[in-house]
Design brief:
Trna Endonuclease, Chain: A, domain 1; 31% helix; 7 helices; alpha/beta; 6-stranded mixed sheet
Length: 238
């Protein structure tokens, strides 16, 4: 990104909460020209001061089931360049067809779960749903491919937005889960890659990303890491 932005220029871009996580400013990498803060820290600070705005996100209730019987984990489009969807389907296949139970998240029970009720609804799809039976917890996993350059702030906001949009009671019912099951929003990013490096810096350098850290805690976000070695996938929480 060539142009350098001031703190005020960053703040001017983030007044509208509609599809907030999609705004370019959420994904800016670097520091402001004047205050020398990370762009994402400026945005995260503003969100913390205006956290109530998330209450204006209206849930969407699907008339159809959230559970799609056609989801079998098989890639029907061999030419697809949607890497995240391919990884999601492979993880689903490992759980559903090969019986794999992952650490932390449990079993993957769906991928590409639709949030829209009608075509014009402004909502995407949940990359993965995972259910940990021991913890009685359903996780909304926002998967990012290994070479994703998206900021952790973007990942956090996207996962949390989906948690706000989904009709939680119907989601649980459609997947045959009890109504008292906990639902968590979780960025699901690759260990050792860009988002993990951000989080590592946050822990190693005091106050380097203090606003992001506060926002993660305030929203109840759980960061989950996916590791791939020799074609084998494993899950790491920290």
């Amino acid at each position: 990104m060539g142009k350098k932005y001031s703190k005020n220029e960053i703040l001017e871009e983030i007044q509208d909460m509609g599809n907030f996580y999609k705004r370019k400013v959420v994904n800016y990498i670097g520091a402001t020209s004047d205050s020398k803060e990370y762009y994402t820290e400026v945005v995260a600070e503003w969100i913390l001061k205006n956290i109530y705005l998330f209450d204006y996100i209206k849930p969407i209730t699907r008339e159809k089931s959230y559970k799609a019987d056609s989801h079998d984990g098989k890639n029907k489009d061999n030419d697809s360049n949607r890497e995240e969807e391919k990884i999601a389907m492979k993880l689903f296949d490992l759980s559903q067809n090969q019986g794999k139970v992952f650490d932390v998240i449990g079993k993957i029970i769906d991928y590409q779960t639709p949030l829209k009720d009608i075509q014009t609804d402004k909502a995407g799809k949940i990359d993965l749903l995972a259910y940990n039976e021991n913890e009685k917890t359903l996780r909304i996993l926002e998967l990012k491919k290994p070479d994703s350059k998206e900021t952790m702030l973007r990942c956090v906001l996207e996962a949390y937005t989906y948690l706000k949009i989904v009709d939680k009671a119907k989601l649980l019912k459609d997947f045959g889960l009890a109504e008292n099951i906990k639902i968590k929003a979780c960025p699901f990013v690759f260990y050792g890659k860009e988002q993990h490096k951000e989080m590592k810096e946050m822990k190693e350098i005091k106050n380097s990303r203090k606003n992001l850290e506060k926002l993660i805690e305030k929203l109840g976000i759980e960061i989950i890491y996916l590791k791939e070695e020799n074609g084998e996938y494993s899950v790491i929480e920290k």
